[in-house]
Design goal:
mainly alpha
Length: 193
């Protein structure tokens, strides 16, 4: 008798989490499917069955991590000010900073990691906040709303993200300033298009 679908999904999530832990700890190039299988108490064939290979495993690992941190963002998505605070709390968390360092390093080793990150994480962030940005800014064009959402997200972390990635503790005053500036992007300015 085969296991239930929910048990299979739980196992798949555990494998993806084990892979992400190893990738972040050791670096993408240093981790093999065999390493992940050993750490997770699985076989390489199980990993291939679930993920198809390393790219699928990275995509699943990033998607699983994203789902963990999306809760606060989804809860705040209709209120840009609350979203801005939640976004900064997520992006500057130690786990997220470690993940970003991993993606930056791994993308140099394998461009597919960067592609997966853009597809799985970046596009989803813009999709989550775009409707609230459109409402706040009075934009009716989806492409313009997505562009403004992208700008809103960029302003929220500003250069403080680079400081944090290099090991500096984020300055709450600068982060508050970024939130204030980001919210000005949402003020309707006769933009109806």
């Amino acid at each position: 008798m085969r296991g239930s679908a929910s048990r299979g999904e739980a196992r798949k999530a555990a494998l993806a989490e084990a892979a992400l832990d190893l990738f972040v700890e050791r670096g993408f190039a240093a981790v093999t499917l065999e390493d992940v299988a050993l750490a997770a108490g699985a076989s390489k064939s199980t990993l291939v069955k679930f993920f198809g290979g390393r790219r699928g495993l990275v995509a699943a690992a990033l998607a699983a991590e994203q789902e963990k941190v999306m809760g606060p963002l989804l809860a705040a998505r209709d209120d840009p000010e609350a979203f801005a605070e939640a976004y900064q709390a997520v992006i500057f968390s130690p786990g997220c900073l470690a993940l970003l360092r991993f993606v930056i390093g791994a993308s140099r080793e394998d461009a597919a990691v960067g592609e997966v990150f853009r597809d799985v994480v970046l596009d989803r962030l813009v999709d989550v906040i775009s409707p609230a940005v459109a409402r706040s800014a009075g934009l009716t064009d989806e492409a313009r709303a997505a562009e403004r959402a992208d700008q809103f997200l960029a302003v929220l972390h500003g250069t403080e993200l680079l400081r944090a990635l290099s090991g500096e503790t984020p300055d709450p005053r600068r982060l508050a300033g970024y939130r204030t500036l980001a919210l000005t992007l949402l003020a309707p300015a006769g933009n109806t298009g």
